Amino acid sequence: MSDTQQQNTARLDEEEARRQLLELAEEFYDQFEAGDIPEMTLPTRTKSNIVFDEEAGVWVYGDRTSTRSANSVRGARKLLKAVYAVEFLAQQLDEDRSSTLRELYYLSESWDSEEAQFTSQDESNQLIEDLEIVSGVTREDFHMRPEESGAKVMGPLLLREQTRRGDREIHCQDDVGQGGYQIPNNPDTIEFLDNDAEFVLCVETGGMRDRLVENGFDADRDAIVVHLGGQPARATRRLTKRLHDELDLPVVVFCDGDPWSYRIFGSVAYGSIKSAHLSEYLATPEARYVGIRPQDIVDYDLPTDPLSDSDVNALESELEDPRFKSEFWTEQIELQLDIDKKAEQQALASQGLDFVTDTYLPERLGEMGVL
């Protein structure tokens, strides 16, 4: 896609976002005019209404819906807040400005109706998610930003990024420092120009990401190293999906060896319950888990911590989780419950600082057919 085409696509996305917002406001107006009690229908946002789409390999909302109606004081307040938020977002798009989720929470303090003000940031965050669902438009197209996630990319990738000061080309090795390229809030404003990569390696922790970069793993193995920063932000997952889909690059995920890190992998590969309405936009079902595996704890006699009660409960839950219903995950989780141990990525340093880049990852990636 050319630079002009990409800019036109971005403008069309913003125009669609504004159109959908105004249509929602018009729907409320039409309900008033017809003498009906205003209401808004949404998928029921509970765990029981999240289903795993076996064909797509991602989490999606089920068929159950709930209605936000002004026939109660509580419901009326929610719709009032939605109307104020819609007006703010439409104005923001008109002015080509943006704001953070945190700023929206504080901005409501200036709204002329005290009833429309948010009582917590969780409330304002949830409303933005509601607007995404009913409009079919992402919050990025509303020009809503999360707080900085800090996620970075390092690797043989040349891209063009749209900025307010014009477009700029950046090579994610040659034009960045040791910190790497900062993933923008909306990765769809990035155009991939060229790359010499063989695969994408998503890394949970900053310490391991720094070890890989210091040891030159990205250059030696032609890898695009994506720092997940713990539970990955939407922008990080979106960029990872684009790297896979558009550049045809295998994606592997490298996390700590504990149930919570397996769920980080799950959010990259299959989506999360919180963002089930965007799974096809964010998830990469073809992503594979490289480690740390419970088998690694045994094979390399890694330093460990004992499993806590919550770890055990989480592992037992994952045995029933459709995301982990495979021979590989069943074997690994049952092994972990048996040995009653967990280990961090950095535990590989017990074998030496170069072990992870010279031995562990090359061997594992070789077994997986990635290298």
TrEMBL record:
SUPFAM superfamilies: DNA topoisomerase IV, alpha subunit. Residues 199-365 form the Topoisomerase 6 subunit A/Spo11 TOPRIM domain. It catalyses: ATP-dependent breakage, passage and rejoining of double-stranded DNA. InterPro entries: Spo11/TopoVI_A, Spo11/TopoVI_A_N, Spo11/TopoVI_A_sf, Topo_VI_alpha, TopoVI_A, TOPRIM_Topo6A/Spo11, WH-like_DNA-bd_sf. The active site is at residue 106. GO terms for biological process: DNA replication; DNA topological change. Its cofactor is Mg(2+). Residues 147-196 form the Type II DNA topoisomerase VI subunit A all-beta domain. One of its GO terms (molecular function) is magnesium ion binding. It holds the Pfam family TP6A_N. One of its GO terms (cellular component) is chromosome. Residues 77-143 form the Spo11/DNA topoisomerase VI subunit A N-terminal domain. Keywords: ATP-binding, DNA-binding, Isomerase, Magnesium, Metal-binding, Nucleotide-binding, Topoisomerase. Mg(2+) binds at residues 204, 256. It is an enzyme of class 5 (isomerase). PANTHER family: MEIOTIC RECOMBINATION PROTEIN SPO11 (PTHR10848:SF0). NCBIfam families: PRK04342.1-1. Belongs to the TOP6A family. This is Type 2 DNA topoisomerase 6 subunit A. It comes from Candidatus Halobonum tyrrellensis G22. The lineage of its organism: Archaea, Methanobacteriati, Methanobacteriota, Stenosarchaea group, Halobacteria.
